[in-house]
Amino acid sequence: MSKKLVVLGIQWGDEGKGKIVDLLTERCDAVVRFQGGHNAGHTLVIEGQKTVLHLVPSGILRKNVQCMIGNGVVVAPDALIEELNALESAGCEPRQRLLISPGSPIILPSHVALDQARERARGKNAIGTTGRGIGPAYEDKAARRGIRFGELSDPDSCCERVGELLEYHNFLLTSRFGVDAIAPDDVFSEVHRWSQELAGLIGDVSNRVYEIHQDNGNVLFEGAQGTLLDIDQGTYPFVTSSNTTAGAAACGSGVGPLMMTTVMGIVKAYTTRVGAGPFPTELFDSDGDHLAKNGHEFGATTGRPRRCGWFDAVLARRACWINSVDSLCVTKLDVLDSLSDIKICTSYKLDGETIKQPPWDSRSLDRCVPNYESLPGWSESTVGARSLSELPREAKNFLSRLEELLDVPIDIVSTGPDREETMVLKNLF
Ligand code: IMP
């Protein structure tokens, strides 16, 4: 039977999804992005060569894999053109295999200006967005005034609509935030360039996925960010502006929910987060420094240092059931090498009470104190281990404990950034 696999992060993003998607697409006919935008940064390392993708699905480096950007993704045309050009310079032919839904909202330069102006205005309450216009573009979509990708096929009428939207954006930029307006003529000439370069990529993603399904093909739905950044289920307001959870794979690509056959949750062996917001297991000591240094914890999109902490099983367990995760992939196990003790948070203390479910609001989550379980670490290197038998006993115990706490089997373990440094315990296709 063909498979429809959703792959998503179950923490605050940066779990290493790009590498796993790239690995799994060996047996896929298509990869679909269904939410987020170029706020994502998916790093792939193949035989030592690094590629960072932001908008283009991580299957692009495999020939014969159809890559699609669904209606749930907000598309920045200038960033997309830059990414396509970089891929072409590296010898890849992305344009022949990429299809973009006409329903995807477009990110305009004024969305970027609004995102940055809003963040500045929030002052110490800033969310720490990537500053790429993601939030304002989703706002316009929900307010039913957004410009959609399909409109690039008629640049003149697209410019008319962009002109109307810019009037509103410029009013906000100048009157509300006191910053410069965006010159409409500059955007209009950009629209014509975008149309020339990108209109040929517009296509019916929903129908293409259905055709592949009818042909018994395998499709992978590639999540971006992570469950705890979901606009509804995450640590609101310190979240991104899309639904990052599994349900979005269906509505963000225009297919029915029963098409999905497996949901793989990617978790790091510890926790990281970029930007502001509650993070109960965050570390400010030498163990935190160890994770940051050995895990190279800097954002792939913004280069910002990531906050680091112990594995939080309270949040991860909930993320598993919110997404119907039935298969787990643990990444960056090797980053824990040489730590003498490894901690896992199994419950919180909030106002004197022990709780096993996270509170619904960020303020209370911020006050939660983690209760830890301590596991012995290991001194041997696990880098590049290819089977469980190559792992030290303590590392195997750590993985078994995660399986037990999350109640989901671990099918893949990653022990280094390269495609090769991966242990596939169960074949998902
Ligand atoms: P936005 O998506 O740019 O609006 O940013 C909202 C929040 O999501 C900020 O805390 C960002 O740091 C975070 N964020 C957005 N994209 C990613 C990602 O790909 N990985 C990790 N964090 C992200």
Give me the oligomer status: single chain
The CATH topology of the largest domain is given as Adenylosuccinate Synthetase, Chain A, domain 3
As a whole number of angstroms, the C-alpha radius of gyration is: 21 Å
Secondary-structure class: alpha/beta
- Would you count the extended β strands for me? 17
H-E order: EHEEEEHEHHHHHEHEEHEEHEEEHEHEE
Strand order in the largest sheet: 6-5-2-7-1-8-12-16-17
Explained architecture:
The protein is of the alpha/beta class and 429 residues long. The chain folds into three domains: 4-101 and 202-259, 3-Layer(aba) Sandwich (Adenylosuccinate Synthetase, Chain A, domain 1), CATH 3.40.440; 109-198, Orthogonal Bundle (Adenylosuccinate Synthetase, subunit A, domain 2), CATH 1.10.300.10; 267-424, Adenylosuccinate Synthetase, Chain A, domain 3, CATH 3.90.170.10. It is built from twelve helices and 17 strands. The chain has helices at 17-24, 77-89, 109-122, 134-142, 155-176, 184-198, 205-214, 247-251, 286-294, 313-322, 362-367, 393-406, and strands at residues 4-9, 30-33, 42-46, 49-53, 66-69, 98-100, 219-222, 262-268, 271-273, 307-309, 311-312, 327-331, 341-350, 353-355, 369-376, 410-414, 422-424. The strands form four sheets. The chain has a nine-stranded mixed β-sheet with strand order 6-5-2-7-1-8-12-16-17, sandwiched between helices. Strands 11, 13, 14 and 15 form a four-stranded mixed β-sheet that branches. It has a two-stranded antiparallel sheet with strand order 3-4. A hairpin with a 2-residue loop joins β13 and β14. The longest helix is centred in the middle third of the chain and has 22 residues, at 155-176. The protein is globular. The chain starts with a strand and ends in a 5-residue tail after the last strand. Bound molecules: inosinic acid (IMP). Residues 12-14, 39-41, 127-130, 132, 134-135, 224-225, 229, 238, 240-241, 274-275 line the site of inosinic acid (IMP).
